[in-house]
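Researcher: Please translate sequence to structure tokens.
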Amino acid sequence: MRWLKRLKAAPQRFQGLKDDRGVETIEFLMMLPFYVILFFIFLQVITLGLQFFVSQHAVNEAAKVYAVTGDLNQAREMAARIVGTGYPDEDEHRRSLMRMESLNISGDDSFTVTMRVRYWLGLMRFLIHENDRLTYTVDHRADGKALLP
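Model: Translation complete:
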């Protein structure tokens, strides 16, 4: 009848497990994936803000170049230099999370520069390999007036 003595002693053994040692560690480990995902979402939002800032700067610079020179090719070259073309044949270190797809200028004396930029949403773009589902396209605009007579 040794098993009967053990059965009677079982509730006394579990009384020692009523303290909360280690609970914080388990709770932290359970919440860690949530915090990591939240951190990457925060980084993605910051990255998107910087991409929009750089793109708007590029279209403004293209408008300045066109206002001074009146040359569409120089304006495109300036915008492409700032934003980047993002083509796969470029040097891997020069690739960016955005690509200028087109730059159009309409009007003569008072003109509007419209630039279409494609953004990649993935922070780990080396794992995505040009996945079109994680991209979106935005048109940026700048208005200007020609400085040439």
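Researcher: Any highlights?
Model: The longest strand covers residues 110-120.
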